[in-house]
């Protein structure tokens, strides 16, 4: 047995503010726990053979004998319970005295595992599948512990071992096994053996105070705690009710207790009756009534009795605010659901009813705090916990140690909340010891800490357990109710409205009522209910193992109540939970209406989504609470109007009300029922028609508005604001379906998706931690997303947010999905074990992602970031982009207002993989994310870029006759179907065959909407020809942005162009006139258009009257422009049209030039400019022949010193593809190069990559950091700058020539004003460059027209150095060896993504 040093606490042991019971034993600050031993002779001997299995062992007293033939292993199992878990960090010693008639081949070993060893004792391994695959860490940790022997004489040997596990080892049977190996020569003999004793001991350990826990020092959450009560309230009593004068004794009125109390006892009018310890009968009472003018008072004594109904019309007083009772008071409520008397004055039976002008005061002993957080992890097997707070809890009380894993549903496996009894408390009140060790681990790390709640009180209201869920109840419907220090158990009546453990009922406001420091445990229906009541206090209560919504604000009219510092744990839904597989969720009714679910299961359909805290009206003060478990932790359904007793009240719209306060709250272990459910859920809709309630659990938008003061007839937009919040081990963290929300100062840990916000939404000052140190968290999904941008009609701002620990957890295989001639998709194949069919790897964990499936919903510019920080986040995992054929994929975008999200260091626009987003060549393709990034603010004179959105209506876009199919018919289509969805394209001006390069375009479909970058022109082309009528809505074109528009028409077409203010009361409009020059359109865009005989030109803007600088959502230095439909441009041509509305005259594609320049603007290189020779060691694809002039002069110098073992040549050979070169180079090279570079930086990347080499403005550095060279080490896309000069000296054995053959390249000249560019404009040709976070982008420093020279092969013979400058670009290779069903006949040519694919 475990012994503890127990001591009586005197005043000297009390820390300030700690109030232990003087009679309670405590744990000293340090105590050495002696060894715990399990010894005995209760063994089960087993012999086994790999070819015969189990064999019988006979026993004669203490000697065991195996049969002849086949015994290879001997096992001893100690049947006496030892230690259920073997806890990491503790040392275990096993000793056995063993005698055997035969020799042993090896020393014996110890085995202890999760599974019952009887399954595995005839194997040479423990479990080939269960252990090695499901829990490999246990298999590797505890497969065998070797023992050492000491000869005791007479063939007796003492075998022993000590082991300290590094992981917790579950061992539910509490058994320890010893395995003995018999020597080969004796396997066919009869073997006798004997055991004297087998003992298992656990090391002594010192219960030192835990190391100081830095309270969320690395996070943003600030713990919100109640103020410590006045000591005098706990230790002194004043103005006690039982000390008042004029009290009459119960015995004096009703006689001494008898075994047959009358069925009805009514207190006399105008009397105060005192109940003492000896007043009441042990026989149950039926009904006791306290009339309006009377009081029933309890003394401070040990009082217990049973009653079916206690009706209080006057006053019931057990203690007072200044005189809390210390003695136990226990009231048992009795009665069956089938009793004929089921109602009493409309307030039910089996409980306490306070009615009319009645009041109730119940004040039990004050324990503080009522719950605390762990100060360090409680590991399974531990019999004590360390708390962050000093408590005055006492021996004999029960506590609950709350789960810290994700799943709290009891579906498949039991929940991990544990109830234990206190057997000792430390003198400072921070350590409590239990009667039994823990079965599970409960995490307390730097990120978050589990809770421990006190379940015991000295006033107890309870019922016996009832299989029908028909328990007692407490309803306060009178003038005032003050209830504190009361515990209830088996209370509430399932699906009986108004019958709850604690209930304020239709009390209105100003009553001064409160529920404080109470317990609702094992409830049958709810916990603490506020119904039709305002301004009450509900604080420091605990609810555990509750049925239905627990802390419950009922009808939607309840406001200005304070719900603070409460705890809810293990909340269970009633009936079938809401598990709808889409955003729509499920629909439930309160009766058996068709189309609903679970009609008879619940009287209130919202109990299908039971939450720890449920608010039908958010305009209350919600402070410092913690919710664990439930369908969600905090639930906020939308009520368009009140329900229940207030269903006819049209003066309030509950769902529009903002928070009074939401601050300091925590939620965890929620959301296991539904993929979209989470710890905080703002969604669903509850309505009432007649007496029938209808609840839709899925997406229902809620507006948030509030009446302006002093005019109640006007409203203003309000935001639902969550402040200082902690969420962990959730499915989803916070899901808000509404119009306006702000989330400030919040932490997320161990959550499959941290947050999903709709409407105008701001996430600020957040910490999103993908994975904590809680190895037992049991994530909802190993794939973790931090934030998912939506695809339409929202505004999502993320500012001042840190993302931590988003690694790629396991292996993924690359594969390519063929998608037709224009598209190719590169994906990650994860989680597949081809041999076993089980999950083996894990997908990546992304920071930013989005839905990509929809074509109907095309994202405008609706997402923006600022002030983003990453800690332990792989660069690859910052953005998840999925290449599919849909509008949501093609138009994926967000704005990084300061370059911190994209790590560019400058304001950056992000767009999808399509060249449509590559408006200029200062844009970069980030291959790790498969997206384009462009500087938002190019250098002068170029205008700041924005992301714009326009809608165009034509006969083919969303046609009224249904067209080619429903609006969602093009969602995430395969290539063969996608061709049917395309009706044309939009392209950037200045790119296309007419300009010597490829179109930079995006296909458009029947679903309206085009999103792209301003600062250029958009060309609109319809496959069926010019549309006789067009309507253009520039829905999101920010002020000052340049967005020019062109579309082709037959020569000679004339136009009527009218601009209409859609919502103008007087239907105002502008009639556009034809401009004589195109420049007139640029200067007067609201009144002019231009037609050059081929293209119609407009400049798209929004009139200031309806779209100005204030028309944007702005928070934290980031903003998103409004999307509005106030202004339409109606275009009607005079062309002859067919029945579908298209001009019959043919038109030709005519993408206009872009004459206003671009930063680093390039044109296509003529295809004749190619290298002159290709060595045979390169891939067989040969460049086209071309001119071969040589440089006019070689560079003049070479660096004299390079790091040992480094050269200017790559370390390894790689396939090289030479791009075209100029025909000549300048005769004089620049004269200098910067001699100082940032620490760890060079002019070449650290890793190998597809490279483009350009001439720098200066010279090469003479000193490089140790271990660095001008050659890359491994492959990474980079921009590389090459000097014009060559070093004259190299280390021995090194040259400027690569180790393998490389083609030499001659240079070619270009006419003045032209420059080089890649052959195509596809994303596949883009270089994925990561710009430094400090904003240094060397490309911006290079002159617009510059000679681009590329380094060439150099041969150093006899001290003579020669060099040529080359441009190299590596082919991309995709290995299909792992893609078993790959069909090499697919055409992977993609003009939009020229990946230069080769097949190994």
Description:
The protein has 1400 residues and is mainly β. 3% of the residues lie in helices and 33% in strands. The two termini are 69 Å apart. The N terminus and C terminus are likely disordered.
SS-based structural class?
mainly beta
End-to-end span in angstroms? Answer: 69 Å
What general outline do the C-alpha atoms trace? globular
Annotation, overall tally of beta strands? 95
Stretches where pLDDT is under 50 for at least 5 consecutive residues are 1-38, 46-61, 80-84, 112-142, 204-217, 594-599, 810-842, 959-966, 1161-1400
- Which sheet architecture does the biggest sheet show? 34 strands, mixed
**pLDDT averaged residue by residue:** 74
**Share in helix:** under 10%
% residues in beta strands: 25-35%
Please tell me how large the radius of gyration is.
Answer: 39 Å
Q: What's the number of helices? A: 7
Quick structural overview:
By secondary structure, the chain is mostly beta strands. The radius of gyration is 39 Å and the shape is globular.
Write the layout of secondary structure elements.
Elements (H helix, E strand, L loop, with lengths): L6 E2 L16 E3 L4 E2 L2 E5 L2 E7 L3 E3 L2 E3 L2 E3 L7 E6 L6 E2 L5 E9 L3 E8 L18 H5 L1 H7 L2 E2 L1 E6 L2 E8 L5 E2 L5 E7 L9 E11 L2 E2 L24 H5 L12 E2 H5 L9 E3 L5 E4 L9 E6 L4 E4 L4 E10 L2 E4 L10 E5 L17 E4 L4 E5 L7 E3 L10 E3 L11 E4 L16 E9 L4 E4 L16 E4 L4 E5 L9 E4 L3 E5 L1 E4 L12 E7 L5 E3 L2 E3 L6 E6 L3 E3 L2 E6 L3 E3 L8 E3 L2 E6 L14 E3 L21 E5 L5 E3 L2 E3 L3 E7 L22 E3 L2 E3 L9 E12 L2 E5 L8 E3 L7 E3 L2 E9 L3 E5 L3 E10 L3 E5 L2 E10 L15 E4 L6 E12 L5 E7 L5 E7 L15 E4 L13 E11 L13 H4 L2 E4 L11 E4 L12 E3 L4 E5 L11 E7 ...
Parallel strand pairs: 2-33, 20-22, 21-23, 22-24, 23-25, 24-26, 25-27, 25-28, 26-29, 27-36, 28-37, 29-38, 36-39, 37-40, 38-41, 39-42, 40-43, 41-44, 42-45, 43-46, 44-47, 45-48, 46-50, 47-51, 48-52, 50-53, 51-54, 52-55, 53-56, 55-60, 56-61, 60-62, 61-63, 62-64, 63-65, 64-66, 65-69, 66-70, 70-71, 79-81, ...
Antiparallel strand pairs: 1-2, 3-19, 4-18, 5-6, 5-9, 7-8, 8-18, 9-17, 10-16, 11-15, 11-18, 12-13, 12-17, 14-15, 30-35, 31-34, 32-33, 32-35, 33-34, 49-57, 56-57, 58-59, 67-68, 71-72, 72-74, 73-74, 75-78, 75-80, 76-77, 76-79, 80-89, 81-86, 82-83, 82-89, 85-86, 87-88, 90-95, 93-94
């Amino acid at each position: 047995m475990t012994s503890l040093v127990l001591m009586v606490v005197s005043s000297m042991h009390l820390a300030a503010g700690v109030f232990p019971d003087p009679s309670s034993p405590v744990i000293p600050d340090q105590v050495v726990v002696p060894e715990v031993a399990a010894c005995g002779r209760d063994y089960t001997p087993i012999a086994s053979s790999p070819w015969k299995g189990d064999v019988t062992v006979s026993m004669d007293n203490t000697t065991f004998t195996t049969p002849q033939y086949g015994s290879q292993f001997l096992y001893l199992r100690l049947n006496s319970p030892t230690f259920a878990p073997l806890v990491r960090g503790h040392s275990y010693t096993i000793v056995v005295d063993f005698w055997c008639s035969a020799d042993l081949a090896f020393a014996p070993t110890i085995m202890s595992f999760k599974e019952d060893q009887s399954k595995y004792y005839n194997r040479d391994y423990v479990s080939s599948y269960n252990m090695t695959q499901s829990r490999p860490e246990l298999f590797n940790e505890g497969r065998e512990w070797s023992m050492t022997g000491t000869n005791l004489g007479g063939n007796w040997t003492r075998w022993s071992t000590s082991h300290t596990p590094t992981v917790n080892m579950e061992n539910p049977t509490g058994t320890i096994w010893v395995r003995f190996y018999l020597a080969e020569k004796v396997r066919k003999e009869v073997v006798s053996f004997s055991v004297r004793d087998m003992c298992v001991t656990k090391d002594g350990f010192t219960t030192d105070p835990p190391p100081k826990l830095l309270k969320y020092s690395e996070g943003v959450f600030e713990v919100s705690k109640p103020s410590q009560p006045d000591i005098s309230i706990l230790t002194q009593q004043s103005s006690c009710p039982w000390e008042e004068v004029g009290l009459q004794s119960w015995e004096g009125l009703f006689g001494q207790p008898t075994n047959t109390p009358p069925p009805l006892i009514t207190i006399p009018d105008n009397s105060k009756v005192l109940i003492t310890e000896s007043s009441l009968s042990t026989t149950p009472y039926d009904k006791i009534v306290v009339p309006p003018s009377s009081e029933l008072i309890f003394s401070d004594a040990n009082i217990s009795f049973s009653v079916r109904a206690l009706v209080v019309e006057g006053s019931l007083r057990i203690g007072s605010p200044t005189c809390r009772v210390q003695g136990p008071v226990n009231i048992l409520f009795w009665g069956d659901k089938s009793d004929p008397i089921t109602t009493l004055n409309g307030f039910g039976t089996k409980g306490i009813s306070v009615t009319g002008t009645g009041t109730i005061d119940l004040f039990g002993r004050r324990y503080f705090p009522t719950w605390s957080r762990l100060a360090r992890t409680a590991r399974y097997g531990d019999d004590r916990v360390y708390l962050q707070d000093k408590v005055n809890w006492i021996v004999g009380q029960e506590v609950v140690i709350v789960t810290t894993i994700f799943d709290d549903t009891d579906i498949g496996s039991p929940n991990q909340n544990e109830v234990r009894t206190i057997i000792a408390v430390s003198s400072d009140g921070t350590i409590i010891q239990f009667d039994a060790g823990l079965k599970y681990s409960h995490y307390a790390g730097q990120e978050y800490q589990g809770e421990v709640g006190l379940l015991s009180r000295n006033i107890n209201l309870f019922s016996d357990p009832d299989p029908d869920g028909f328990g007692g109840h407490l309803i306060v419907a009178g003038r005032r109710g003050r209830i504190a220090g009361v515990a209830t158990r088996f209370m509430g009546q399932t699906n009986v409205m108004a019958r709850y453990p604690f209930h304020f009922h239709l009390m209105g406001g100003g009553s001064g009522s409160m529920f404080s420091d109470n317990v609702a445990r094992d409830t049958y229906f709810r916990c603490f209910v506020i119904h039709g009541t305002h301004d009450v206090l509900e604080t420091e209560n605990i609810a555990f193992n509750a049925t239905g919504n627990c802390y419950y604000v009922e009808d939607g009219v309840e406001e200005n109540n304070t719900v603070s510092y409460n705890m809810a744990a293990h909340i269970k839904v009633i009936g079938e939970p809401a598990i709808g597989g889409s955003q729509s969720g499920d629909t439930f009714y309160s009766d058996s209406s068709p189309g609903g679910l679970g009609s008879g299961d619940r009287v209130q359909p919202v109990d299908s989504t039971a939450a720890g805290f449920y608010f039908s009206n958010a305009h209350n003060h919600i402070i410092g609470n913690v919710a664990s478990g439930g369908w969600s932790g905090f639930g906020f359904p939308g009520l368009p109007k009140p329900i229940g007793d207030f269903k006819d009240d049209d003066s309030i719209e509950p769902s529009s009300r903002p928070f009074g306060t939401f601050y300091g709250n925590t939620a965890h272990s929620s959301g296991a029922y539904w993929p979209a459910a989470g710890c905080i859920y703002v969604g669903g809709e509850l309505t009432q028609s007649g007496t029938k309630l209808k609840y839709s659990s899925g997406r229902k938008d809620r507006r948030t508005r509030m009446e302006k003061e002093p005019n109640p007839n006007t409203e203003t937009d309000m935001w639902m604001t969550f402040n200082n919040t902690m969420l962990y081990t959730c499915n989803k963290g916070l899901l808000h379906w509404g119009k306006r929300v702000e989330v400030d100062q919040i932490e997320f840990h161990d959550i499959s998706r941290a947050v999903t916000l709709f409407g105008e939404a701001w996430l600020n000052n957040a910490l999103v931690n993908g994975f904590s140190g809680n190895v037992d968290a049991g994530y909802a999904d190993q794939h973790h997303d931090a934030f998912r941008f939506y695809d339409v009609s929202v505004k999502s701002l993320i500012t001042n947010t840190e993302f931590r620990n988003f690694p790629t957890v396991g292996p993924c295989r690359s594969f390519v999905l063929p998608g037709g001639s224009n598209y190719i998709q590169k994906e990650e194949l994860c989680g597949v074990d081809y041999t076993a069919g089980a999950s083996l790897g894990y997908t990546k964990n992304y920071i930013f992602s989005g839905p990509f499936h929809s074509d109907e919903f095309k994202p405008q510019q609706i997402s923006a970031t600022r002030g983003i920080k990453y800690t332990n986040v792989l660069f690859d995992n910052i953005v998840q982009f999925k290449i599919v054929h849909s509008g949501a994929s093609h138009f994926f975008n967000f704005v990084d207002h300061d370059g911190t999200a994209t790590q560019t260091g400058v304001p950056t626009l992000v767009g999808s993989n399509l060249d449509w987003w590559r408006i200029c060549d200062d844009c970069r393709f980030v291959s790790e994310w498969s997206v384009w990034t462009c500087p938002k603010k190019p250098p002068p004179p170029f205008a700041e870029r924005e992301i714009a959105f326009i809608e165009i209506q034509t006969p083919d876009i969303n046609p009224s006759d249904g067209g080619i199919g429903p609006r969602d018919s093009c969602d995430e289509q395969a290539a063969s179907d996608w061709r049917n969805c395309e009706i044309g394209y939009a392209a950037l001006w200045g790119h296309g065959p007419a300009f010597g390069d490829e179109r930079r375009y995006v296909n458009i479909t029947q679903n309206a909407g085009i999103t792209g970058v301003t600062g250029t022109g958009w060309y609109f082309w319809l496959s069926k020809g010019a549309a006789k009528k067009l309507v253009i809505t520039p829905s999101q074109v920010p002020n000052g942005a340049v967005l020019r528009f062109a579309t082709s028409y037959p020569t000679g077409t004339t136009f009527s162009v009218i601009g209409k203010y859609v919502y103008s009361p007087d239907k105002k409009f502008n009639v556009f006139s034809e401009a004589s020059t195109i420049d007139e359109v640029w200067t007067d865009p609201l009144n002019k258009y231009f037609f050059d005989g081929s293209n119609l030109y407009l400049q798209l803007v929004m009139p200031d009257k309806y779209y100005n600088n204030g028309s944007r959502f702005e928070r934290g230095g980031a903003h998103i422009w409004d999307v509005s439909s106030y202004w339409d441009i109606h275009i009607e041509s005079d062309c002859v049209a067919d029945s579908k509305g298209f001009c019959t005259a043919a038109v030709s594609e005519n993408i206009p030039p872009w004459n206003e320049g671009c930063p680093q603007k390039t044109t296509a290189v003529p295809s004749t400019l190619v290298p002159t020779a290709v060595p045979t060691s390169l891939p067989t694809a040969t460049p086209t022949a071309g001119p071969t002039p040589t440089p006019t002069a070689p560079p003049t110098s070479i660096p004299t010193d390079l790091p040992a073992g480094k050269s200017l040549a790559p370390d390894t050979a790689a396939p090289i593809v030479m791009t075209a070169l100029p025909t000549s180079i300048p005769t004089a090279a620049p004269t200098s190069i910067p001699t100082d570079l940032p620490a760890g930086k060079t002019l070449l990347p650290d890793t190998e990559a597809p490279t483009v080499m350009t001439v720098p403005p200066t010279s090469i550095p003479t000193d490089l950091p140790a271990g660095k060279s001008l050659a890359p080490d491994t492959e990474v896309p980079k921009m590389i700058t090459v000097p014009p000069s060559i070093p004259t000296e190299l280390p021995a054995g090194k040259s400027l020539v690569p180790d393998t053959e490389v083609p030499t390249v001659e240079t070619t000249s270009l006419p003045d004003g032209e420059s080089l560019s890649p052959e195509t404009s596809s994303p596949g040709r883009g270089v994925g460059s990561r710009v430094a976070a400090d904003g240094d982008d060397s490309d911006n420093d290079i002159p617009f027209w510059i000679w681009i020279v590329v380094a060439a092969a150099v041969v150093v013979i006899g001290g003579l150095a020669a060099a040529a400058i080359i441009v190299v670009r590596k082919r991309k290779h995709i290995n299909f060896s792992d893609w078993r069903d790959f069909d090499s006949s697919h055409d992977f040519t993609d003009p939009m993504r020229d990946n230069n694919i080769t097949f190994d």
